[in-house]
Amino acid sequence: MTAHLPPPRGALPLTPPERAEAASKTRRFLTALADLPRDNRFTRRRQLAAIRAARGSLSDLDDTGLRDRAAEVGAALRQGELTGRLLVDAFALIDEAFCRETGFRFHDTQLLAGLHLARGRFVEMATGEGKTFTAALPAALHALAGCAVHVVTVNDYLAERDAAETAPILARLGLTSAHVIHGMELPEKRAAYAANVTYCTNKELVFDYLKDRAKEAARSPLAYRMWLETVEPPLVTRLDYVIVDEADSVLIDEANIPLILTEPTRNTLSPRFLQQAMELAERDDSAWEDEDDLGFSALRTEALARLVATLDDPDPEWQALALAEEVLTQARAARDRFRRDTHYIVEEEKIVLVDQQTGRPMPDRSLPFGLQQILEVREGLEPSASRKTLAKLSFQLYFRKYHKIAGMSGTMREVRAEMRDIYRTGLAAVPTHKPVIRQRLHRRLFSTTDEKLDWAVARAEEIRDQGRPVLLGVSSVQLSEALAERLRDRALPHDVLNARRLAEEAEIVAEAGQGGRVTVVTNMAGRGTDIKLSKAVKDAGGLHVVIADALESDRLDRQLYGRAGRQGDPGSYDIVHALDEPELKLLLSRGAIAAFGRLRALAPAAASAFYFRYLAYRRNRLEGIRRSRRVKLLKSEEKRDEMLSFTRRR
């Protein structure tokens, strides 16, 4: 008798079989929406005109009638057939709900952005154009059609704020909405994910997904099937439609950062071994290869034994050569790339990482094994135990799992080609509702940070005396506190918004637009922050922003100075750098920095002009290198998924 191997088992579905029919209808609707007649300027003009024309017919409905009409449109959408007429009807209903709740109508640029998002595109909208309410248009459309809708943003503050602002609008259409933030109890999260529209952060969403899959992987097929049938199914079960706010930050800047779900083990590294690794990292620069374009250097293979031999009494763990090389490399990285109050802070005897994109603390995150423990020993803390990896996933691979993805940002044109290649969707640039009249006033280069900060403080005092508010933007907690100390020395009232003052964020942001207010901010006040201005402040010239640090990309500059001159308001900004900034060493070579120092001594104005042009070139070049790394990571993850596709562990 001949034995036959059974065919490989496919990955088990995300949803139980009884939900297959509903999921099929959802897919038909999403496919139909993507297959609308070819989009063009004339089609969009007709749709905008039709939405405006429908406003009069809906104003006669009472609130109950509006919900009933929304239910009728939702029922038609759930049939899986979406026509241009249904799209217009749905947007008109949402516009009416918006008007009843706020007293305003969506303006044409918001409606236009909503049409693009509904078709599964990325949209570049300038800061201050109302992206929060714009996202409600496609979110409500898909929710009415029965799709699970996730609106993803970059921090808990924005997730909670956006959910609160849009909830009354969605409720008028008979839809539920909720938010998921860090620290919520499991029942609260489960209820939030069950809402028609869920607002959440990218990290919280992906980690919840990973936790579900880690539980799934630990079960046998029968136990897994029974688990899906219990009263507590996975939190994140349907990946129908996602709108990613600040899409370039989530999908590009953080794309190659793997999210790793771990649990502690009993193993740890001895403090003596880690201390010796830090000592060796300071010795003999010739033992290390030249830095690459991103500032990383590797240990020369033949140098490890030579370095260890210089220790008087090597710790026994140096005998494990693979571990020794890894920890020594991590010690070098800690020395060169991780500074207290810039990349992390110490709170309650723990290392708390600071998100370099948002400036926010990440208390539940840790660095790779070895690097985390080295920083702990460096700060006089007890090294934590090693951790076992349960699951890992990158943002770019996770968000490619959605049936349809859309996103918004004010800074996407530089990465549009990568977004198209990786997420298979295009970019639409939406004009501003009012002309932008923001002005750049100064770009200055200084030799030292002290000179730069003195100039920034004097500039803040000058603008403050005009009755205008000032934002002083830096990249680190350390620099924000140094700037605050100088303001105190000048007796200038001010606020500081950084990773140490997360609880006061809403209050500080609310007061930052008052006349004569000076606020020192990190990247926390970049993406999504809306600073309200009074008429008196607008008449005085609006908000002024001083960017007093070399940020990683032009997009981060644009996000920060984009706090000024929003929605047609007046505003202005300055950019000032210093040649001794630690972050500048990650952008320019030591030789280039030295050359600019010599040139500045001879011709300051020429040095400043040439420096900023060269900095833009270097930022673009480094962005290309990072893009290549992101593509390699994606291919590696896809290959791993392909190899594991015959198991449930995909």
From TrEMBL:
According to the UniProt record, one GO cellular component term is: membrane
Xref: CDD domains: DEXDc_SecA (cd17928)
As one GO molecular function, the record gives: ATP binding
Q: Which UniProt keywords apply?
A: ATP-binding, Cell inner membrane, Cell membrane, Cytoplasm, Membrane, Nucleotide-binding, Protein transport, Translocase, Translocation, Transport
Q: What are the Helicase ATP-binding domain coordinates in residue numbering? A: 112-284
Q: Which InterPro entries match?
A: Helicase_ATP-bd (IPR014001), Helicase_C-like (IPR001650), P-loop_NTPase (IPR027417), SecA (IPR000185), SecA_DEAD (IPR011115), SecA_motor_DEAD (IPR014018), SecA_preprotein_X-link_dom (IPR011130), SecA_SF2_C (IPR044722)
Which residues are in the SecA family profile domain? 26-608
Alphabetical list of PROSITE patterns matching this protein: HELICASE_ATP_BIND_1, HELICASE_CTER, SECA_MOTOR_DEAD
Stored Gene3D superfamilies: P-loop containing nucleotide triphosphate hydrolases (3.40.50.300), SecA, preprotein cross-linking domain (3.90.1440.10)
Could you tell me the Gene Ontology terms of the biological process aspect for this record? intracellular protein transport; protein import; protein targeting
| Helicase C-terminal domain mapped to chain residues | 452-603
SUPFAM superfamilies hit by this protein:
P-loop containing nucleoside triphosphate hydrolases (SSF52540), Pre-protein crosslinking domain of SecA (SSF81767)
Superkingdom, taxonomy of origin: Bacteria
Q: Does the keyword Transmembrane helix apply?
A: no
Q: Which PANTHER family match?
A: CHLOROPLAST PROTEIN-TRANSPORTING ATPASE, SECA INNER MEMBRANE COMPONENT OF SEC PROTEIN SECRETION SYSTEM
Record's protein name: Protein translocase subunit SecA
Organism this protein belongs to? Pontivivens ytuae
